[in-house]
Specification:
Elements lengths: L4 E5 L11 H4 L20 H15 L3 E4 L13 H11 L4 E7 L8 H13 L4 E5 L4 H7 L3 H20 L4 E4 L4 E5 L12 E6 L3 H10 L2 E4 L6 H16 L9 E9 L3 H19 L5 E2 L2 E2 L11 H9 L14 H7 L2 E4 L1 H15 L3 E5 L7 H27 L4 H11 L1
Parallel strand pairs: 1-2, 1-13, 2-3, 3-4, 4-7, 7-8, 8-9, 9-12, 9-13
Antiparallel strand pairs: 5-6, 10-11
């Protein structure tokens, strides 16, 4: 059987904002004043978050997910590799997924190659290596225009993977990173190299690059149901173009989940930290003082086809997750799944059946959520939700994939 793979994703948000933050500040990104950092309240914060992820390993999650962000309150991992290093010493079985390092922001991607190789050895071959161009806020932070960032990204990925697989020293004559000597020590433990995952937001350009290299595509937008199914169909078409066959494990998606003993209790426990996350941590992520922060400085892509696809992609509304006004709206959009184990099982199973995605990367901690609540949600999920999802998805995924049948029907029409 090939069951769905369940990962625990932690953003490591800053939980000590003043009560009036939303009223008095325009964004939690890029320009958020760092005088709001409270040294005393934050003492031990990283250790708490690292211990939550280590608890995910104890509970049997397939992997633990980290990512890189800069100058914000949403995610305090300016270097996810540092957190990954700590996790290599505190965990035993779970994959350690760095999703992702942002090589376009670095002077030389060989630093990424070396650190990932170290992590793979330190974790006894458990690393999944993620690479991304970075979101608009990161582009503004480091003043790297989006088109230039994309050129750097794909050259960096190819260089890193080649440094892991080819014998060195060798020359690299790329336009962004010309190097006389490529000869990294150590080599990764996994052969030929760790799995490579690349996030994207339904950019055809990104799908093309991921598919032709045979990597895993991660849908970074918080779309669910129809949106994810549409992305899976698009990626399946792109893979077919490159003589490859889509399976659910070629793709991953981010989901946000909170589980408690009952639907009522789940809402009561999650409501305050969820709104903290939405109204504070996501504030200004895509728009700040009337300026779009989605893509960073410069036009978003060199590919006209990719830009047209972004503009024409179906969306449920023009409102973003952080724009929700009520709990009913959140539930109607299925943006954050909150409820009893039975409710969460039912909703996630419906998503798996519809979307046909095999890697579910699940956020359990929100904003200023207490450690005991995050751990309870993880435990209830692991004990009362995950077993049924793994059993039923194993049966489903061992059959002919419905997403492929939809693709065949589309071609016939």
């Amino acid at each position: 059987m090939h069951p769905v793979r369940l990962f625990c994703w932690h953003f490591m948000a800053y939980p000590h904002l003043p009560e009036d933050f939303d009223e008095n500040h325009t964004s939690g990104w890029v320009t958020v004043p760092n005088k709001l950092w409270d040294r005393e309240k934050s003492r031990g914060l990283y250790q708490t978050y690292i211990d939550q992820l280590a608890y995910g390993d104890e509970l049997g999650f397939d992997g633990l997910v980290l990512n890189e962000h800069h100058q914000n309150i949403y995610g305090l991992m300016a270097s996810p590799n540092l957190i990954a290093s700590a996790l290599t010493q505190k965990t035993e079985k779970a994959k350690i997924v760095v999703l992702a390092d942002l090589p376009p922001l670095y002077l030389n991607p060989l630093r990424v190659a070396e650190e990932f190789a170290m992590l793979d050895n330190m974790s006894n071959g458990r690393l999944i290596a993620g690479f991304a161009v970075g979101g608009g806020p990161e582009s503004f932070n480091y003043n790297v225009p989006s088109p230039h960032g994309r050129r750097r990204l794909w050259e960096a990925i190819d260089l890193v993977v080649r440094s892991w697989t080819d014998e060195g020293p060798f020359h690299h004559e790329g336009p962004c990173y010309p190097l006389r000597y490529v000869n990294i020590w150590p080599k990764p433990l996994q052969t030929p190299h760790p799995q490579v995952w690349v996030p994207g937001s339904r950019s055809i350009e990104s799908m093309e690059e991921v598919a032709k290299r045979g990597y895993c595509y991660f849908l970074s937008s918080r779309s669910h149901g129809d949106g994810t199914k549409a992305a899976a169909l698009e990626f399946a078409q792109v893979m077919e173009k490159h003589n490859k066959t889509y399976t659910p494990f070629n793709m991953g998606v981010l989901l946000s989940v909170y589980v408690s003993e009952s639907d009522e209790q789940a809402k009561a426990e999650a409501e305050k930290p969820v709104w903290y996350f939405l109204r504070n941590c996501l504030k200004g992520h895509l728009r700040q003082k009337g300026k779009s922060m989605t893509f960073g400085p410069g036009v978003p892509s060199q590919s006209l086809r990719s830009w047209e696809a972004f503009l024409n992609a179906p969306r449920s509304s023009g409102r973003m997750l952080g724009d929700a006004d009520s709990w009913d709206e959140l539930e109607a959009r299925n943006s954050i799944i909150v409820g009893s184990p039975a409710t969460v099982r039912e909703k996630l199973w419906g998503f798996i059946e519809q979307a046909q995605v095999g890697n579910l990367l699940i956020q359990f901690h929100f904003g200023n959520m207490e450690d005991k609540l995050a751990r309870k949600s993880m435990r209830l999920f692991a004990e009362e939700v995950a077993p049924a999802l793994r059993r039923d998805s194993g049966i489903l995924f061992d059959q002919e994939f419905p997403v492929l049948r939809d693709l065949e029907l589309e071609e016939a029409l």
